[in-house]
Structures are given as structure tokens and as C-alpha cells.
Amino acid sequence: MDMSRTRERLVVVGGDAAGMAAASQARRMKGPDELEIIAFERGHFSSYSACGIPYWVGGDVTDRDQLIARSPEEHRERGIDLRMRTEVTALDVAGGRVRARDLESGAEAWTSYDKLVIATGARPIRPPLPGIDAPGVHGVQTLDDGQALIDTLARTSGRRAVVVGAGYIGVEMAEALVNRGYEVTVVNRGKEPMSTLDPDMGRLVHEAMEGLGITMVNDAEVTKILTGEDGRVRAVATEDAEYPADVVVLGIGVRPETTLAQAAGLPLGDHGGLLTDQAMRIRGYENIWAGGDCVEVLDLVSGRERHIALGTHANKHGQVIGANAGGGYATFPGVVGTAVSKVCDLEIARTGLREKDARRAGLQYEKVTIESTSRSGYYPGAAPMTVKMLAERRTGRLLGVQIVGREGAGKRVDIAAVALTAGMTVEQLTALDLGYAPPFSPVWDPVQVAARKAVGAVFGRR
Fold first, then answer.
1. Residues 6+ away with beta carbon under 8 Å from 4
2. 404 three-class SS
3. What is the mean pLDDT of residues 240-265?
4. Phi, psi dihedrals of residue 343, rounded to the nearest 5°
């Protein structure tokens, strides 16, 4: 500790979910007289929901401020010195300090720390293609990104949009642009949209997107972004075709933002994310923690490290970090890879392993797919639902579940997420005492119908 200071100092790099959850929890653990907390955020906003940006762009959320959980002023009122528009440019781990630049004035200064939290998030993938930085081409990761896209849409007279990539962000942004009256083309390098699903389930998403009037172009690699005489984007090119565009949204995915950490020599995993222990402490460093989209997490099903950029994990990481940095104790044991999304009224959910994940982990498995309904078939509003389930051969251990259907389909994946976390078999899953009434479920819940079929596949019973 710097002897010129009379209290410990916690420095947080990154002012969104993980960083400010950590700062807030640490403040609850220790008051300002015991712990000084300084947080740096290079953007204009703190503690916001990046997951809500597509719904803001599409008009479902009408006010940007609805996505902000806690403003900088609210954090400061709680005894956190949050410095906005200030970018950390270097980490001096040996010296216990960070260098930060005020983006308005350009002034730079070192700030010492006793404890450090790295919550630098993730950055949208921007492949080094000709024209990728042209006006009208947007990544969507932060509220600043969302505001820039909305400003572009307001200034653009044309109504043609191309979304590059068909993961969660790409699919959600495609729907948002349709809702704004755009003619939307999605260019996707995969066989089907939503690579987090197996292709047979992704096909159901493909059909739903085309039903919205979206043009799906699969098995296509973007080679360049074409611009007009004014320098603005005018089209997206693949090897075989050009797709006219007045605006382009990149939904290719994200990578951990670990540039500073790598330069400081901190340990990174195979996916480029920081490696931590269960207390979210960076491995080999007693007084440095990391959380959110910049870290890798343990997959409890495969036993391998993964990079999953989700606000749910970031907030939990922050709570764990804050408890530990504040002198308490908490752990984050890992994830099972649960995610849910939608295209119009089609709900898309997955948890656990896909087929290729299971093969990569060296697991032998059985797979089953069933068709069911969200409610008892005779009850008004019953909607179709497809459930795919993977179970380990011989043992029957549940490995993964994917669900695509209408209202009531998506959150059913939580049943499987709990079962995966508990290490349950498909036979145990069939015996779960789930809630039943005709407005909510058939007598056999669709997840349990799939589990019964998986029992038959694994053990030869029908």
C-alpha cells in the first residue's frame, strides 16, 4: 500500500456490468473510510444493458436511458469515484498503478492501486476487409455504438440494410432493422443462422427469418465493403455477388478486449480471454481480479474454458469480485452455456453442448428431436415447439438441449440448465416434479418428452 495514503484503494478498469457491480459490492462490504474506489470508463455511459441495444434500435425500447441501470452520478453518490470518458492506456502490474487519459482534455496521469479489477469487456470483430471502416458500417457493442447507429439511420434516406453475421446480435439486429422499415439481407458464413445451435435447429430460425421478409444468404464470406463517390458504404460484396446497402451492421461476434492485459503479461486462454480462479482472481496474481466479457469461464459440461459474452455472467462476476476485494469470500463455479433469443415471435434457446462440442470433448452421445406444444393441445394458444436433446452414451448424462418454438418455448431451457448444473441424467430429468396446468404445459412437459425419448435412445427402452 502507498504509505502516503491512509486507506486501501481499489481501481476498476471498465464502468459497465462487471466493473460497476464489483465496485458497488465492494462498497457495500467496506465504507469510504476503509476503502477508496476509483473507476475508469472511456465511454459516455455506465452500468447499462448492452443486450437491450437491438430492442432500442428496433423501437421496442423507446428511450436510451431505460437501458441504464445506474448513472455515473448515482455511483458517485454511493462513494465511488467514477471517471467517465477516461481511458486506461497502460497497466503497470509490478508498480501497482494504471495510466489513464482524459479523452476530452488529453491529459494523462498514473493512479496507484492496492487492488485492481479488470472489466474491459469485449470488442466487435471487424475483419480487415477493404471498406470496413467506411461511414455507414457499424458494430454494436456499447450504448455509444447504438447511438451512432441510430444517428446514421436517422440521416440515411435509403432503406437497404445488410447485416454481416447471423449469431445472436446479427439475428436480433436484422429483426430490429425490419421493424424500422428496412429491406434486410443477412450474409452468413455458416450453413444456417445461429451457429450456437446445431444446423438442423438453425434451419428453423432460417425459415422464421425468411418469414419476416429477411433475405438469408448462407455459406457466404464477405470479401469487401464497397463505397460510393462520397465514401459511404453502398454494397457488401462476396465472391459471388454484391448486396446493395445504405447501412451495414456487423454481427460477426466479439472477442475479449484484453489488449492492456496482454501487454502487462497477464495470463490469457485459448480464446484470448483472461484466466481466473473461482474467486475471479487472475491466476498467479493475489490482488488483481477480472470479470465480464474479457475473461474465459469454465464450462461445467465439457470441463473446458470458454468465452461467453453475456450480461448475466458479467453481473455475477462483479458480485463475486466485489465480495472478495471487499474482504469477504465468494466464488463463480462456471457455466453450462445457457442463452435465449428471439426472432419476431420465434423463441430460440440453448444450453450445454452442441454435437460438435461433444465430439470435440471426446464424448459419445445419443441425440433425439421431438415435436410438442407449449400448452395442452386442446387449450387455446397452444403453439408448436421443437426440442433437441443430447445425452451421453451408456451413462445417460444430459449433455445439451436446444429449443425453438413460439411463446413459452425459450425459458423452458432453464429446466435443462438446472439439470446440467446438477449433473443429472435424462432418466432423472423425466422424474422431475414440474408444474402442470393446461394453460402452461402438456401433461408431459416438452423437455421431459425429449428426455423420455433420450432414455430410450441410451438404454434401448421405449
1. none
2. strand
3. 95
4. -130, 110
Among residues 29, 51, 268, 383, the one annotated as catalytic is 51
Name residue 166's beta-bridge partners. none
Across residues 320-344, what is the average pLDDT? 95
Residues 462 and 459: their CA atoms lie apart, in Å, by 9
Q: Is 344 among the catalytic positions?
A: no
Cα(190)–Cα(213) distance, rounded to whole angstroms?
A: 20
Torsion of Cα atoms, 149 then 154 then 158 then 163, to 10°: 20
How far is Cα 308 from Cα 273, in angstroms, rounded to an integer? 10
For the beta sheet containing 242-244, the strands, ordered from the edge strand earlier in sequence to the opposite edge, are 222-227, 233-238, 242-244
Going by the DSSP 8-state scheme, the letter that residue 70 receives in this structure is: S
Q: Give the span between the Cα atoms of 68 and 72, in whole angstroms.
A: 10
So what's the pLDDT on residue 141?
Answer: 86
Please, which residues have CB within 8 angstroms of residue 77's CB and are 6 or more apart in sequence?
A: none
CATH H-level, domain 126-252: superfamily: FAD/NAD(P)-binding domain (3.50.50.60)
Instruction: Identify whether the C-beta of residue 161 lies closer than 8 Å to the C-beta of residue 182.
Output: yes
User: pTM of whole model > 0.85?
Assistant: yes
* 112 pLDDT higher than 60: yes
The percentage of the chain sitting over the pLDDT mark of 70, rounded to a whole number, equals 98
391 CB-side CA count, 13 A: 28
Give the C-alpha separation, 212 to 453, whole Å: 33
- Measured CA to CA, the distance from residue 106 to residue 86 in angstroms comes to 9
% of the chain at pLDDT higher than 90: 89
Dihedral sign for Cα 155, 161, 162, 168, please.
Answer: positive
pLDDT band of residue 461 (cuts 50, 70, 90) is low
Domain limits, the chain: 8-123+255-325, 126-252, 346-456
Element (H, E) at 138: strand 137-139
Q: What is the mean pLDDT of the chain?
A: 94
- For residue 397, pLDDT beyond 90: yes
CATH code for the domain defined by 346-456: 3.30.390.30
Is 8-123+255-325's fold the same as 126-252's?
yes
Q: Is 332 a residue whose pLDDT tops 70?
A: yes
Cell, residue 119:
472489466
Match domain 8-123+255-325 to its CATH number in 3.40.50.2300, 3.90.45.10, 3.40.50.300, 3.50.50.60.
3.50.50.60
